[in-house]
Amino acid sequence: TEECIGRWLREREGSVKREDVVIATKLTGGRNVNPRNIKKDCEGSLKRLGTDYIDVYQLHWPQRYSPQSNWGQSLQYQVENDASPYWRNGGGPTSIEDLCISMQGLIQEGKIRGWGLCNDNAYGLTACTRTAKFLGTTPPVNLQGDFSLIDRKSEENGVAEAASPYNENVGFMAYNALASGMLTGKYRDVPSAMDDPDRQRASKSLEKPRGRMDTRGWGGTLHRYRTDAARAAIEEYAEIAKRNNMSLAELSLRWCRQRSLITTTLVGHTSMDQLKESIKCFTTKEPLSEQIMWAIDVVHMKNRLPIFSNARVGKDWYGEGIIGEPIP
């Protein structure tokens, strides 16, 4: 992706000014996060992008254990996980102090303008902003998180309060606003290849995927958007969209735009038609009515976090969740 953006910039040199483009990219998180790799990986991104600076450099995954790392399958926070071999890299996970100082070094060198977090939680956000202010370094400017009609946890788990202009004043980037395609409705009639009981039809979907859900790798990882509860909610949202003469995707994106937490919504596309539809959603000035927003909330209140619901609990799990990650 960085190389594609770099090519796009080079091909438009003279017609597109770098300062008119805002580029955000990521540093792989977890145990990769240490002062040496923060600088090395940033320089690699700059080279691929063919630019002198990155506007927002994000940490993809926290540099410590977090239940969010387990896509919500963890039933509790386990303090011993922070001391597990995975996180004990060079004497332990990189401290938040070292993280803030390293990001400040990139800012002072002119390599980045600002930095942010991704898939972190209210603790990580507040700890980073408060530590940076205490050290006199630049605090994070954004938090990127999973957010959609079927994943509203960031409004209710302390993230919205922490990110508020009245508190840490950090922007929020919503990703998977269409739940990896589930909220476009394209998997309603014909299930994803991973869920389709018709194996012959599933094979055809794998050969000609409609999106990530029809691939073996992502299709397994993104199971959270296809739980029984998630699909039930999606059907109800589709009905709301139909009653109001709009597509499910339009309802999903316009709803997302109206949430007070959201600063910007990231979108991905598998076709030009979908891209045009997204552009239309974001350029439509008229907000969704109070009646539509209330109808959405009524569905939400039936199951406030359907992506973390799971009716497929079996004896064969042996301590592993549906996508093979450990649970207590």
What does the secondary structure layout of this molecule look like, with pairings?
Blueprint: H1 2-11, E1 24-28, H2 35-49, E2 54-60, H3 96-108, E3 112-118, H4 122-135, E4 142-146, H5 153-156, H6 159-163, E5 171-175, H7 199-207, H8 216-221, H9 228-243, H10 248-258, E6 264-265, H11 272-283, H12 290-302
Parallel strand pairs: 1-2, 2-3, 3-4, 4-5, 5-6
Low-confidence stretches: none
Largest sheet: 6 strands, parallel
- Helix/strand/pairing class, anyone? alpha/beta
What is the string of SSEs from the N terminus onward? HEHEHEHEHHEHHHHEHH
Shape: globular
* Helix-residue proportion: 25-40%
Assess the beta-strand content as a share of residues.
5-15%
The radius of gyration computed from the alpha-carbon positions, rounded to a whole number of angstroms, is: 21 Å
- The chain-level mean pLDDT equals 90
Strand tally is 6
What spatial order of strands do you see in the largest sheet? 1-2-3-4-5-6
Number of helices: 12
Distance separating the two termini: 36 Å
